[in-house]
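#struct-pred

JT: dropping the chains for the assembly here, can someone run the whole complex?
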Amino acid sequence: MLEVLAQGAFAEPMASITLAHYLVLSGAMFVLGLVGFVTRRNLIIMFLCTEMMFQASGLALVAFARYSMNLDGQTFVIFVLTVAAAEAAMGLALVVLLFRKQESLSAEVWNQLKG
Amino acid sequence: MLDLAPIAMTLAADSPAAVASAPAWVMLIPAMPMIGVVLCTLMSIMGVRSKLPAFVTVACLAVSFLLTVFMFTGHSEGWATAVGWEWLHYSWGDGNGQNFTANFAFAVDGLTILWMLFVTGLATLIALYASEYMATDVGQGYNRFFIAFNLFVFSMACLVMGSNLLMLYLGWEGVGLCSYLLIGYYYKKPEAVAAAKKAFIVNRIGDVGLALGVYLAFVHFGTIEYTELFASEKLQGYLHDAAEGHWSHIPWQASAIPLFLMVGAFGKSAQLPLYVWLPDAMEGPTPVSALIHAATMVTAGVYLIARTYPLFQVSEIALPIVAWVGTLTALLAATIGMAQFDIKRIMAYSTVSQLGYMFAGLGVMTSVGAGFHVLTHAFFKALLFLACGAVMHGFAGQLDLRKLSGLWKVPGWRIVTIGMFVGCLNLAGFPLTAGFFSKDMILAEAFVTPGFALIGWILLFTAGLTAYYTFRVFFRVFVGPVEYHAGDDHHGDDHAHDDSHGDDHDAGHGFHPHAPGWAINFVLATLAVCSIVAAGLYFIGDHGWVAGMIHDSTAHIDPHGDEAGGSHGSAALFGLDPHKAMYYISSVVGIVGIIFAYAFHLHGRKSAGEAPAADAFKAALGPIPRWAENKWYVDELYQFLFRGPLLVLSHIFRYVDMLLVDGLVNLMGWLPYAVGGRLRRGQDGVLQSYAASMAGGLALFLLVILLLVNQSA
Amino acid sequence: MSVYTRGCPRPIGVPCVNDFLLPILMYGACAAGAVGTALALPRRKPALALIGGLVVASGIGLMALMLFLAAGDVALLPNLFFYVFAGLALGSGLRMITHPTPVYSALYFILTIIASAGLYVLLGAEFMAFALIIIYAGAILITYLFVIMLATQAPVEGEEEAVPDYDAVAREPIWAAAVGFVLLATLTTVMFRGADSLPGPEINNDRGTALASMPLRIQRALRESGAIETSATVETVDGVAAFDAVTGEVLTSEGPKPLPEGLEASNVETLGFNLLRDHPMTIEIAGVILLMAMLGATVLARRQVDLDEDAKAKQARHLAVGSEANDA
Amino acid sequence: MSQMLLPGAILLPLVFAALVALLPQERARSLALVGMLISAIPVLGLLFSFDYAHAADFQFAGSMQWIAEFGLEVSVGIDGVSLLLIALTGLLGPLCVLGSWTAIKDRTRLFFTWLLILQAAMIGVFAARDLLVFYVCFEFTLVPMFILINVFGSTNRKAAAIKFFIYTFTGSMIALAGLVYLAMHTADAIGHWTFALDDLMLHASTMSGTEQAWVMAAMLAGFAVKVPLFPFHTWLPLAHTEAPTAGSVILAGVLLKLGTYGIYRFVLGFVPLAVVEHAPLLATLSIIGIVYAGLICWVQTDVKKLVAYSSVSHLGFCVLGLVAVNTTGLSGSVLYMLNHGLSTGALFLLIGFMYERYHTRDMGQIGGLAAKMPVWASFMVFFTMASVGLPGLNGFISEFLCLLGTFQSSFGLAAGDANPGATPGALGPWFALFAATGMVIAAIYLLYMVGKVVWGPLVEPEGHDDSHTGLPIDLSAREITTLMPLAIACLVFGLYPKPLMQAIEAPVNSVVASYELEAPAATIEHAEPHDSGASEPEADH
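RK: done, full complex below.
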């Protein structure tokens, strides 16, 4: 059953879902992540938004893998996942540290490096 | 050697004189004063505190004078050149004008000898005079005075004997420097320093004109050596055209040269536009005034025009301008001279006036008349100045003719008075005196030369004025009731030992004048004799000794084909030969002037202070005498027209430089600082604003790319 | 120049509804998305957030309609799953960034992850889908929730649902949203520009080569299908089955036999081969990254216990004794 | 052996700079003097073994490959002009050390080390035969000068040093751009990169008119600031008033000449078309400089600022001579570089000696020093007369030649053979007339200065007593020995400039020869035929 789903078993040329669909979708998800990162002041939510951006890029990669019949896209998504995991671990450790320092999760507290 | 085609016109009819090489000792004449300079400098370095520098100077100058006399006797005809060393020589091609050579060389012809004779002669005498006159400064500035004195004679020798225009220029500025140093001798007095500066700057203005004249001469003729310049066939061609009246054939470069040279002459010889420095030059010690500002330096302008006479004849308007400027200067100076009270100032204005006569002489084509007047004027004007100097020296710097009277009767002042009398006679043009003959030659020529009659009448009137103001001085100071007040001796420095005539209580005769010593009297006597003897020169040779000398020099000219030495056989004046006519007219004018002076300043004068007749006449004239006394406000005019605006301009430039030019540079410095300050505020340290600006940048970037791609598609 | 000629039956030159309709739809969708997000972002007055949410929903609808038109074919239903998952992902994504309380955001994010896992399945990447859910939703986001719990203050008795102000108000929502969606608009325009014929998914026809690298599996399948004797084997050349791509047959001890029908290399297998054969190095690096991250996290988050002087001295001695003990 | 003379002249000062830097403080002064004198020996060697017969070609040439593929090599060589300027530097070096014997009391080691380095850099510039050495040395002269002014200057020395450095540095950056463009143009022509001046010279003339104009503008930006030409001169008075005596002497004596030497060697050498075309503009700038700076001098109250502005005015003549592009003008301006160095250098030394005694430069506070310091006063008058341009002293020769050069270089006059003395060129009598007013203005402001400082009643700053200056009231023997060589040089070169003229005539003629000057069509007037009827005078240029 999965193969049917995957291949879009309906007869040629029912090219209904095109690559652009997925790219637009991943673009939208990426932008959502970006807007979230830029607007939300909570450090953790900002990290979450970066994860969202990772997710969007992963989706685009898989879409490309599928539409150009090359599995590298998928392997690359694996690495995206590892990086996301590593980054999450580090980031959260950092957030905990920062939180312990300033008792607040707001990003604007940390602006000593201003010009 | 170019033999000119025998044309009717006798423009320097015979071929220009042969160029012989003079004996080497000719160069000793300028060398001796230079040796004097070196010796005096050594003495000042070694701190000599005696009169030695004076005697060394007199010795050197005497040797130089003797050599000049030998040169005169040995001189035959045309040029005699002696080359010292190669001063300035370079070339940029092999064409005729494509190299510039100016050697440190000397060229001697009649004109040079005439000039050098009275320069070195007077210099020796005046050096002797100065040895005693400057005695009060023996320790202080004595050496410095004689260094400058010797340097002056050296520069004058270079000027007169130089063989090219550059040597003339060297001498020209050299005498300017020496007059600067000597006028500013009493450097503690601010007026002396100002006068010296004024003299040098006004001379410098003249020198700019001379320099441009030299450049143009070189550019047009390709050479500045006298021998080559006056023998170039281009110049002869122009002279030929000028004689026939084709003025248009002569290119503008050639006719512009005399205009430039003329400016230099007016600057140096204190003629109308640039004469203001001479009266102020009286701040210097009297020997300086006598030698430099009466006899030698001021005649440099006359020498320049005489030497480059062919160049002046080439231009249609040059000589008339010279004549008119000379005449107007004579008149103006005479009027001012009449109203002054300082006897040295009067003599200074009289010098300016007599120089006006010489220029007028040159202008009306009688270089012989001008030359003779230079010679006679040198002697009697030096005599007058030295006499005034003696008076000043004796009466502790007193020069005001209202404070001195009847010196004839004061013991020890006899010789000074006689000398003064002889000088005044010559200056007034009393018949049979040297001054009389030389002035008449000029007047005669003025009347006869077509188109210059008006100049003649003005000069005649000025001769009367001259006679008046000359004898005004004589009658006020030297004759009449005996009365004298000591001056404040502002000339002597405030050094210790001048108490001999310091206490100047005017109460009466507590102050006894310091009679002149042997040196001064001897010099005055010799000068008086020379002035008298000079009259005789007129009768030597066919038109006087001076005519002979000038005849074999470049200054020679007898435009109207007449052999009678510059007079005009054809033209007659009032039915008689012009010179004879002039003798009678000018002697009448001279005597009338003297009678006026007698009537105003001697007849019925009780004391030195006031002369009833003169004061009454002056009152009658109303404001004019006061204007004349203030020198027709010419100094104030120049201050208003030139010095004032220039000073304002300099201040404007200074602020422009400080604010505008520098301001722009500083603005360039300030700009990055300001922009940097503005940008700094953008970095506020918050993480998200950086993220936002990154996103914004990316969006903008993509948008622009998209638009561009859209355009190009 | 027309961006999307695909599916426009009329002759070229005659403006097809798709030509101008599609751009308006697309930009409209983006604009709606921008306005909606701006409104939905956490602000003082929550009422607006709801309206924002609706606007974004309409935006997603428009985008779906545009994509549907761009596809140009009538068949709607079978691709329904894509639109469902896409809508789910975008909606929960939006909700994630607009929700004031961090825990809900995290949970919404998990929902997005699930939606995108669905999409992965649609794209034939089953292994990735499951990996995503297990690793991503399961591990990473749980850590997030853990940290959120750790970091958010215990609510003071006074105000029960006190939301710290840094969560309550977004930073310049309008400007950020505008920038974001301009970015999206440009991205989508770029994607569609010049894509006259948006290629559909290709059929995977080189399954043979993928299978060849699994000779035993072919052998087992052939034996089951009876094409060869149970004792026959598949010729292998250093581990790879001797497969003739042209005839589509594999060489067995009993001669070349066509591949059994319906034998497919599943995604996991091909992915595994690709991973280990093509990118061995990257696996190692990924491993190292994870190790470093682990080390880093432990070091960073260790509680700095500030001992006083003598406590430190005692600690040092203890360590020294300890090391001697095990040296001896 | 003669090959080692030129590199020796450049490197010896560096060696001694190192020595001075290493040895203890109190030996610095005497060692510096010994160093300067010893490094003057190779300069003397150059002077005597230079072959004056053909002074145009570059002698003592030597080059050393550095980076082959970029065509970078270090090559040196001197012709007549460089020789004289090196001699001037060699002369001024020891005099500066002697002049600042008592002026510099603390950190003498720093002072003399940098002075020696400056000496080496300056000789390097004049001896450079390729762009690399020229530019490195040209830039490197800035550093020592900056330090001299910044550390040893008077009141607001910091601002002066910074402005001096940045102003000149920006200018030379632009010049570098122009020069590199030139090198690139040559590289295109011959295929491989080279910076040797001979090759650049060869191929420079193939550039088009506009190219040459731009390259000239770039190079001029650098050199005009250094000269300083009119609008770029504002750094000079500031730098001079704040610089120590030795700094001022070297700055006025040699550093300003880098600018004019740069114009002579690069602008005149490489871009003939542009020079002829823009000669009137440059001439106007320099004449404005002469008159403008001269008048500013007249209203100055600070003596050193007055002499600084006078340098701006004098160097206006120098550039005017260069732009006249004929042998007279060029030799006049080369002589000017030399003479200005001697007379203004001496003036700065004199002002320095006076400053050491009275610690003020304000003409209001000091006056009539002749009464107290007769020897100083006589030197002051002597050198003022030299710089006013009195005939018989050196100033006159160069000023006369520059003005004559400007006067005669006019296409109008040179057309036909009506004026044999004229040479084709873009200036003419009018330029000379305005420039000649500079002679009068020079007399005005210099005599104003002498009248105030030397002559007149004695004025001394209040609270001044002669005892504590540690110097004799009038000039000490050391100070007189510092001034004597300059005085002798001024007098000798004024009366007998033959050896100088001989050294520079050939190189100058070779530069002028590269200008086959044909009058641009507009200014050719028919020569005045000798006997044509036309009466109106030919329009002068």
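JT: nice. Chain C touches chain B at residues 1, 171-172, 175-176, 179-180, 182-183, 186-187, 189-190, 193 (CB under 8 Å). The mean pLDDT of chain C is 76.
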